Amino acid sequence: MVNDKKKSFWQYYRFPIILLSSIILGCIIGLIMGEKASIFKPFGDIFLNAMFTIVVPLVFVTITSAVSSMADMRRLGKILGSMLLVFVITGLIASIIMIATVNIFPPAKGVHIEMPEAEEIEPLKTSEQIVSAITVTDFTELISRKNMLPLIIFSIFFGLCVGLIGEKGKKIAEGLNILSEVFLKMVSIIMYYAPIGLGAYFAALIGTFGPELLGSYARAMVVYYPICIIYFFVAFFFYSYFAGGMNGVKTYFKNIFPVAITSIATQSSVASLPVNLEAAKKIGVPKDVRDIVIPIGATAHMDGSCLSAILKISFMFGIFDMPFKGIGTYVTAIIISVLSGVVMSGVPGGGLIGEMLIVNLYGFPAEAFPIIATIGYLVDPPATMINVTGDSLASMMVTRIIEGKDWMSKKLTANE
Length: 416
Hints:
Blueprint: H1 2-33, H2 41-70, H3 77-104, H4 127-134, H5 139-142, H6 148-164, H7 167-192, H8 194-209, H9 212-266, H10 273-283, H11 287-300, H12 303-319, H13 327-342, H14 351-361, H15 368-403, H16 407-415
């Protein structure tokens, strides 16, 4: 039994342990070899190029398959509308909390690294700029990683239309689901190379830029991990109180810890779905609500990802010595944090796509991607935990909106 437990622990944590070990090894090699470690950079570039190549088809088939399948669900514009409202509001609250935090504790304070300069950032002030940010003029521009927002919007629209054509669309939806699995398998195969690629890249990076970058990562983690713990116990207390009063708080925290542990172990919203649905059932969330909200939430509800996206954006601003200030900057960062958390949040390492979105939209050079990607790996366990445990909580809040504030009391009375 003990061996089985050890084996399970290793199976769950094997990849992040290997990945972090390879990055640490790469950093040590970089410190020892200095600038000579740049010979390893091509091995890192191979990993970067592989990820950049696959991102566009991956985003398209993942979103369209999810949306087209969702269109088959009966019931309830009201459930979907309430769900969207809850997702957006909690994401906004998480983003605002992290903006306040990084302004008090800048994650990259005092770090100065000579890298290619970021392109000038143009705030989204005019309607023309907003239109150009979410649409393109030609389909060929759509199939480019430089136009991620238009691609996401097009994918959602395509998925909805597949669902709207009814029975004929089911074959397309099934094909999209299969394609999604194929591309996810491609990602999983590419990720086998990630320890070599990122280890090599960081050997070159540390060899060139010195140890100050390592210290900045430690500062970023010191900022992020406590915020996740505080958010889980404080924000989720108020959310569950809104959902069902003190009965809601007690019932939620009584049933949520197995979900939290599973999400940290697997680092996957999708892998945590079965235990999350079971927890929502024990909490008393109606079947139609939990069966809609929690599966969709696995790919579209991302408080933890919103927290981490703001951290990443602030970190990159600090790395490139750019002020993270102003309403325009904050609004843009919040929009990006919400959008970047939607894509692939249920897949281990899927945050890489959102990180590409940040790099591309802010005009950071390609060399910035491994830096922000490493932050993504370091924050992934607590971020996934917040994402997953927030899904069952979202289902409670949707139930409260639909059935009224006494739904929890009625449920407990019925059980008695």
